[in-house]
Amino acid sequence: MKRYFVLIFALSCIVTTAQKTTKIGYIDMDYILEKVPEYAEAKNQLEQKANTWKQEVETKKAEINKLKESLASDRVLLTKELVNEKEEEIKTLEKDLFDYQQKRFGPQGDLIIQKAALVKPIQDQVFNIVQDIAAKRNYDFIFDKSSDLTMLYTAERFDISDFVLRELERAGKKVELSKKQQKLQDQKDKKEFDDTENPEAVKKEKEKEEKLIASKEEREKKLQERKDLVAAKKKEADEKRAALIKEREEKRQKLIEEQKARKEALKNKITEEKKKEEPKKE
Question: Measuring CA to CA, how many Å separate 207 from each of 56, 193, 196?
């Protein structure tokens, strides 16, 4: 019934503010707690304790059952006084077991008390952070999804659990920011809030970014194509120049060889003529 009263109260509050734009968000306390390392570690330790207590309960139950079985098998052999004595012993053990179960697992038991002690500091931190977020971002209502309030449908864009977790991490690390850093962080947080709450704007912004990226890629592609074309023309020109230089060098070498051959032929001719003239001189 409590959850229905809470839901009716929330709806009535929303109706009273229907004349203006109502800003609503929600958190999931269970999700937040599971993401806090300190809580997870302490919860694990508490579960280990609870398992130990459960084992103790099972041990006591086994002892009682053993006594009951023993009494049932020996009843015909025992006197009435002994039977009564054993029954009283069993009743005492059963009462002790019940008291132990209440002490460990009852409404006011160790498990409930230690769970509350474990959760309360984080809940207090979350409450303060939620208050701060509500004031900064102008929220009218922020609900806890994991509480008694029944939420039949929740749009993910209204979930601010991750923002609360981030603030918890900052508080845990005791991060001290300068005024400039804090301003930049606030601007970043505001953009993330706006993006979360206005998916259409995010979609348009994403499309715009994708167009800019595509345009940039197209420009880079054309620029690369021009570079490749220039490089290809340069390579072609270099190859032509190298071929021309080689051709000229071959012609020059051929000319040198021809000149050398002519000189050699002329020298041989002169030598031959001298040989022919030598007998005449005698």
Answer: 62, 19, 16
Residue 110 and residue 63 share a domain: yes
Domain of residue 248 covers 203-282
pTM of the predicted model as reported, rounded to 2 decimal places: 0.49
In whole angstroms, what is the distance from residue 222 CA to residue 228 CA? 10
% helix, strand, coil for the chain, step of 5:
85, 5, 15
Same domain flag for 254 and 158: no
Q: Which residues pair with 26 in a beta bridge?
A: 143, 159
Among the three residues 197, 212, 243, which one is the final residue of a domain in this structure? 197
Q: What is the mean pLDDT of the chain?
A: 80
Where is pLDDT greater, at 194 or 282?
194
Which candidate, 279, 274, 11, 277, places its Cα nearest to that of 140? 11
Provide the pLDDT for residue 100.
94
